Amino acid sequence: MSKKYQNFINGKWVDAKSGKTFENRNPANWDELIGTFPKSGVEDVNEAVDAAKKAFEKWRLVPAPKRGEIMKKVGDILVARKEEIATLMTREMGKVLMETRGDVQEGIDTAYYASSETRRLFGHTVPSELPNKFNMSIRIPIGVAGVITPWNFPMAIPTWKIFPAIVCGNTVVFKPASDTPATATLLVEILAEAGVPDGVVNIVHGGGGEVGMGIVNHPDVELISFTGGTDVGIKISEAAAKTLKRVSLELGGKNAVIIMDDADLELALEGVIWGAFGTTGQRCTATSRLLLHDKVYDKFMDMLVKKTKSLKLGNGLNPDTQVGPCVNEGQRKSVHSYVEIGLNEGARLVCGGKFATDGDLNKGWFYEPTIFENVTPNMRIAQEEIFGPVLSVIRIKNLEEAIEIVNGTIYGLSSSIYTKNVNDAFVAIRDIKAGITYVNAPTIGAEAHMPFGGVKKTGNGHREGGWTVYDFYTEWKTVYVDYSGRLQKAQIDT
Length: 494
Hints:
The protein is an alpha/beta fold. About 35% of the residues lie in helices and about 20% in strands. Helix 4 packs parallel to helix 5 and helix 9 (about 265-275) packs across helix 10.
C-alpha cells in the first residue's frame, strides 16, 4: 500500500512549495508503489536552512551529554523498530532482508556510539611557556550541516553523518537519495520521536541538481557531508570552495581482493562471493577486482564459477533470496553497458552478463552475477567503478605484482588479501594505497567505531565513523587565561 510522504521542516510535515511529487517504487517489482514524495526546490531548501540556523542558537547550548541522552533514545527506538525499518528498506532499495537488518544495526551501533562520544569530546590542556598563564583547547559546534546521502545504505550512511553532527551541537538539512526516501523519512520520524527539537534535523526530498546543490550553495550552510559518485563529489567541492565551506566527501572505489597461493580457498571463496555480489555489487566497497595467484587460479576459478551460478536471485523479502535487483532501470543498463565494454576489450565472459528475467524476475531490475577473466589491469572494467554484480579476475604471479595492480587505479577505498603468511599480510597493509585493508576477509564490512574512507579520488581526506568524524563536525578553539595581572608579550618578552 502506497503512502504520501512530506518534507520535515522546523518540526512540521509539509509539501514542496511547488506541489510537485515523484514516485518511489520497488526495484524487485516495479508495479509496487512505495509512496509519493515532494519534488522540492530551492525555496524548500531555504526554508529548511532558515529553520536549522535558528535552531542552532539553542541546540549548541544544550550540554553534550544531554544531547547524548536523546541519541540513546534514538538507538532504543531503532532496536524496537528494526524489523519494520528493514522490511521497508528492502521494498524500496531491493537488497535482501538479511542485509537491510544489518543496515539498521549499523544505525543502532552508530547511535549508541554517538551517545557515548558526547562524554568524550576531549580537548587538550598544555603548559604555557609563560608564568601564571593557562592554555587549553576545546571543541565547539560549527552551525548548519548539509547532509547528502546515497541509496545503497539508506539507514547506515545517514546515521554516520547526522548522529555525530547533532551530538556535537550542529543542526542538519538532510537530502536523501530519491531512490530511498522512505527509509530516510522513517529515520527523521524516529529522531523527532526521541526528542530532537524542532529545526535541529530537517529533511528535504528532491533531485540532486535542485535540492542537493541548493544546500551546497546556500551561504548559511557551513559544512557539507556527501557520499556518492566521484564526479558529483568534485562538483560539490568546487561549488563549496567559493564560500570556503568545510566538505567531507566519501566517493568511489575499485576494490580488489588478492588471493595468494597459500590462502584458505574455501574462506576466500565465501569472501569473494559476499564482497562481489552482496548488495548486488552496489557498494562503494564492493569487490570489483579479484587478483588470483597463478598457482591456485584454475582450482579457485572452478569453485568461484560454480558457486556464482548457484546464487538465487529474487525479491529480497523472500528468505531464500541471495541477490536482489539493481536499484533501478538506469543502474541495470549502466551495468550491462560495462559488460559490453568488457567483451569489446577482449575479456572472457565466464558467467552472467545478461538481464535476469525468468518468472517473477521480469517484474524488476535483476542482473545475473557476472564474472570476467583474461582481464588486464588497464581495461575499463578493471579501472572504472561499475556499481553492480560484475567481477573482473586478473591473474598474478606474486605479491609485488598484485600490489602494483591494486594501486593502479584512481581510487583507494578498500582492499583485501587472503594469505597464511604474516609477512605478506603486513607488506600488503604497508604498501596498498587504500583507506581500508582487510586480512583474510572481504572488502566489505565496516564497524561503527572505526574510521571509514579512502585515499586518492575516493575522498578528500576526511573519514566517516569512529572518533575521527567528530573532528569534522567540531571546530577547535584555543583558549589562553592569563592570571599574572600584567601584560605578557610571549615571544617578544623572550
